[in-house]
Amino acid sequence: MRNRLRGTFLVNDMTAAEFAFQTIMGRKGVRLKWIGKNGTRFALNGTTYRPDFHCVGTRTYYEVAGTRQAYHANKEKYAMFRATYPNLTLKVVRPDGQEIQIP
Q1: pLDDT at residue 89 above 50?
Q2: Any residues with CB less than 8 A from the CB of 102 and at least 6 apart, and which?
Q3: What are the DSSP calls for 26-72, one per residue?
Q4: How far, in Å, CA of 4 to CA of 24, rounded?
Q5: Which residues, 6 or more positions from 88, have their beta carbon under 8 angstroms from its beta carbon?
Q6: pLDDT tens digits, 42-66
Q7: Burial class (CB in 10 A: 0-12, 13-18, 19+), 51
Q8: Could you give the angle at the alpha carbon of 38 between the alpha carbons of 57 and 71, nearest 5°?
Q9: Does residue 69 form part of some domain?
Q10: CATH code, domain with 59
Q11: How many domains does the chain have?
Q12: For the chain, percent of residues with pLDDT exceeding 90
């Protein structure tokens, strides 16, 4: 099902970048759970953060940065998540699955 919301095309309520990432990872045999709008939220300095995916059976979360601007706009949030939850792994990835290294 496709919807259009605020200029973004959605596929099964996911952005095109999230859908592409889930499809690619599924072909590699990685089981991901899309967190969506009602999924797990993490408290970060008076605000909340919800990654895009959780890798089933692990403590790894994925955030899909569809553009370079999206990554740069949120890189402080990613660093804060890693500092606040050191026992969890957050991987910031491009839609093709390539991990973006966070300093």
Answers
A1: yes
A2: 75, 78, 79, 82, 92
A3: HHTT--EEE--TTS--EEETTEEE--SEEETTSSEEEEE--SHHHHH
A4: 23
A5: 59, 60, 61, 81
A6: 999 888 999 999 998 999 999 999 8
A7: buried
A8: 75
A9: yes
A10: 3.40.960
A11: 1
A12: 58
Residue-number span of the structural domain to which 88 is assigned = 2-96
- Residue written as tokens 């690619």? 24
Looking at the chain, how many residues does it have?
Answer: 103
Q: Is the pLDDT of residue 68 over 90?
A: no
Percent of the chain with pLDDT over 70: 87
Identity at 65, one-letter amino acid code: A
The gap between the terminal CA atoms of the chain, to the nearest Å, is: 37
Place of tokens 């996911």: 14
Reply yes or no on whether the pLDDT at 4 is more than 90. no
Tokens of 45: 């300095």
